[in-house]
Amino acid sequence: VVHNITDSTNNQLMQRVTEGVIDTLGYTLVAEAQTAGRGRRGRNWYSPFGASLYFSMYWRLEQGIQSAMGLSLVIALAVVRLLKRQYQLDAKVKWPNDVYVDGKKLAGILVELAGQAHAGCNVIIGIGLNIRLPKQAAEKIDQQYIDLNTVTVQHIDRNSLVAQLQQQLVAILTDFSHSGFDNYVEEFNTHNQYQQRVVKLSGNEEVEGMCLGVDNQGALLIKTDMGIKNYYGGELSLRLG
Ligand code: ATP
Ligand code: BTN
């Protein structure tokens, strides 16, 4: 379903799923612009008309909330695979939810829970993928960012990109739902933006150490003088140390 201007495609889809109007796996809502596009923790997602994909898809986690960590990472890998296949780009993932190209943020992922289903839980998968941002974006976005138009000379067909992204997501999530995150650990680590780099993880506590990738739940592995520890979590932020 395509909206012209909306507050947030995640809000719109969340409302329909909560009302019980939508329960079709893979149902997708996109918009040309968002007036209240959101990132994690209430941060703003800059969403000018026609400049990006503003994409939300419905899915159900049959295994329940404990698999949400891996879910966020396989979604990022779906975007990475698509960028490779369509544009031969070598994109990376910044754990847990950003897709980077040339060290800059190209896409962000926002996974939100939409209450309990009969089995498992309903999730709204939101993806913002920059296509052709206007110059003013520099005043609105407080970190290094990039758009597809800057990194490929190929023609970008947004309609076909939406369709491909939806297909790629349904394929990877179907496999993830059956087989879990195990099969994706290696793929994640080879596309980890900070693999074998010294990083700083902040949230409730702050830790600095070597980033060793993820474990088979999708938790981040960091090595410090105290040994290797795994970190779960929606509320954590990762930076170079
Ligand atoms: P982390 O999730 O690790 O804290 P983050 O700083 O990227 O990383 P997010 O909440 O994931 O935070 O994303 C929101 C941030 O993304 C905004 O604060 C802004 O810096 C940036 N941002 C907003 N709009 C865009 C956009 N269209 N393209 C790229 N980056 C954007
Ligand atoms: C992030 O980097 O924190 C995630 C950004 C997610 C942005 C997308 S755009 C489509 C969907 N609707 C929203 O309001 N947010 C997501």
Strand residue content: 25-35%
Q: Which quaternary structure do these chains form?
A: single chain
Alpha carbon gap, first and last residue: 42 Å
Number of helices: 6
Enter the CATH topology name of the largest domain. BirA Bifunctional Protein, domain 2
C-alpha Rg, in Å?
Answer: 17 Å
In the CATH hierarchy, what is the superfamily of the largest domain? Bira Bifunctional Protein, Domain 2
The overall average pLDDT, rounded, is 94
**Main beta sheet, described?**
7 strands, mixed
Low-confidence stretches: none
Order of helices and strands: EHEEHEEEEHHHHEEEEE
**What's the shape?**
globular
Helix content: 25-40%
Features:
241 residues, alpha+beta, BirA Bifunctional Protein, domain 2, SH3 type barrels, 2 domains, seven-stranded mixed beta sheet, five-stranded antiparallel beta sheet, 12 strands, 27% helix, 33% strand, globular, binds adenosine-5'-triphosphate, binds biotin
Overview of the structural elements:
- By secondary structure, the chain is of the alpha+beta class.
- The chain has 2 domains: 2-189, BirA Bifunctional Protein, domain 2, CATH 3.30.930.10; 194-240, SH3 type barrels.
- It contains 6 helices and 12 strands.
- It has helices at residues 9-18, 68-87, 137-140, 148-151, 158-179, 185-190; strands at 2-6, 28-34, 52-61, 92-94, 98-101, 104-116, 121-130, 198-202, 206-214, 220-224, 227-231, 237-240.
- A 7-stranded mixed beta sheet has the order 1-2-3-7-6-5-4, sandwiched between helices. A 5-stranded antiparallel beta sheet has the order 11-10-9-8-12.
- It is globular.
- The mean pLDDT is 94.
- Bound molecules: adenosine-5'-triphosphate and biotin (BTN).
- Biotin binds next to helix 1, strand 3, strand 6 and strand 7.
